[in-house]
Amino acid sequence: MKHLAPDYVYTPAGLQRNTCIAISDDGIIDSIFDLETHAIAPTNVDALPGIALLPGFVNVHSHVFQRALRGHTHRPLSSKDTFWTWRNAMYAEAQRLTPETLYTLAQKTYQEMLAAGYSSVGEFHYVHHQPGGQPYAEPNAMSEAILEAGREAGIRVVLLMTAYAQAGFQQAPEEGQRRFCDDSVEAYLARVEALRSKGVPVGVAPHSIRAVPEHWFRAVADYSRTYHLPLHVHADEQIAEIEQCQAVYGCTPIELLERFGALGPGTTIIHATHANDTEIGLLAQHRSTVCVCPTTEGDLGDGIAPYAELLAANIPLCIGSDSNTRLDPIEELRWAEYSARMRYQRRRVLVADEMGSPGPLLLDYGTQSGARALGLQTGVIAPGLPADFIGVDVNHPAMAGWYSDDFLDVLFFGASSEVITQTWVGGRKVSGK
Ligand SMILES: [Zn+2]
Questions:
Q1: 322 an active-site residue?
Q2: pLDDT for residue 217
Q3: Which of 18, 97, 394, 410 is the most exposed place for a label (fewest CB within 10 A)?
Q4: Mind listing the pLDDT tens digit for each residue in 150-160?
């Protein structure tokens, strides 16, 4: 048993002083108690002076290899740059990857995530095969490279295995997409099954309504229900996707997902930037989640999600660093609220109740809500859950002037991940001093 005694601990009851956390040898929180009133003083207490421990942030949506594009796609790629011209640059990057280079890039990026305060990541992984589309001798070689990088860095990885079949509605894959594609949904599910049988935490991820046809969607959704796996899918990020969907199916992407049986409590829609009221109603009806990725959505010019309508419909939100153009959960969450303020031209949009401030809800989006979307039992500091924490330096200049009742607002609106000086996963300090 290990004991940590930071100056403060953020539990579901709020910010606590003089609190000790007992952690079992297998990295689970055993108990949380008041050091001053506890009957027997524990031996071997590790004091963490000047630190407030909060639950580690959960990064629900990452394409780790896109970290290599950071800063390199802002020069002209065409006469009018959009998501689609950026995508060509991303495909070129994806073409270059090997299991070895992917491992190295993922390992460094996961270390960067940990340093920024993410203790878990949902890796939406789609670069599966050799550049021409031929499987590697080990069909999950690229997945294994990511998992090994995660283990080496010390981050908790949920591998969201992406299903990819085609370039667009009834169109064969383009050259740059071949290595994303399996020959059949059975071949894809066999690779998922192989990882599951090794105990790898996995989810299924039909890439988008563009990339996956109906019978694949149905098979993947059935599989996720049978084995209680999260199902993640991109939808409504770009207007062009909605127009194509309307032209082919006469409905919007989220309506199509419902028609294909892909909505449910285990479903997370990535982006939902242009979701309309009907689609939001469907998400509420099926108790699905939305993952917003504000820094990437800003970088790619996607638009601003309908935050107020999603909140009013009680749809859980969570966050992802997506293209990893920035890795900072505080910034990601701040931009959810700031972009919502710009969309609605008012302040305090993401609040749990009218008299509240955004801090507590932003923390929930960044931790518990994200954990649920990945099927993880983490995201809160409570007995019985993994000891996944971040340590915030409460004496950092950016935090100066905080009170216990506005600590989270000072954190989210006044600071960045530079105030996070340590990250713990499963009771082990994996980043920081
Ligand atoms: Zn994505």
A1: yes
A2: 97
A3: 18
A4: 999 999 999 99
Catalytic residue among 322, 328, 364, 388: 322
CB atoms near residue 419 (< 10 Å): 22
- Say whether 3 is catalytic: no
Domain locations along the chain: 2-55+380-432, 57-373
Q: How far is the CA of 234 from the centre of ligand 1 (A)?
A: 6
Q: What is the distance in A from the centroid of ligand 1 to the CA of 38?
A: 47
From 63, 129, 271, 274, the catalytic residue = 271
Sign of CA dihedral 86, 87, 90, 91: negative
C-alpha of residue 228 to centroid of ligand 1, in Å? 22
Give the HSE-up count for residue 74: Cα atoms under 13 Å, Cβ half-sphere. 6
Question: Which of the four pLDDT bands, split at 50, 70 and 90, describes residue 309?
Answer: very high
- Res 43: pLDDT: 77
Phi then psi for residue 340, to 5 deg, are -65, -40
Structure tokens at 102: 């992917």
Q: Please state the three-class secondary structure of 55-83 as a single string.
A: ECEEEEEECHHHHHHCCCCCCCCCCCCCH
CATH class of 57-373: alpha beta
pLDDT of residue 140: 98
Q: Confirm if 286 and 265 have CB atoms less than 8 A apart.
A: yes
Digit-coded pLDDT (tens) for 2-56: 999 999 999 999 999 999 999 999 999 999 999 888 767 777 899 999 999 999 9
Distance 232 CA to ligand 1 centre (A): 10
* Range from 55-59, 144-148, 402-406 carrying the lowest mean pLDDT: 402-406
Q: pLDDT value at position 392?
A: 98
Of the candidates 209, 219, 146, the residue with the CA atom closest to the CA atom of residue 184: 219
Q: Which residue has the tokens 């949009």?
A: 349
- List residues, by chain if needed, whose CB lies under 5 Å from ion ligand 1: 322
In words, the CATH class of domain 2-55+380-432 is mainly beta
User: pLDDT for 358-371, tens place per residue?
Assistant: 999 999 999 999 99
The alpha helices in 251-306, defined as continuous H runs, are 253-259, 277-285, 294-299
Kindly give the distance from the C-alpha atom of residue 296 to the centroid of ligand 1, in angstroms, as a whole number.
Answer: 9
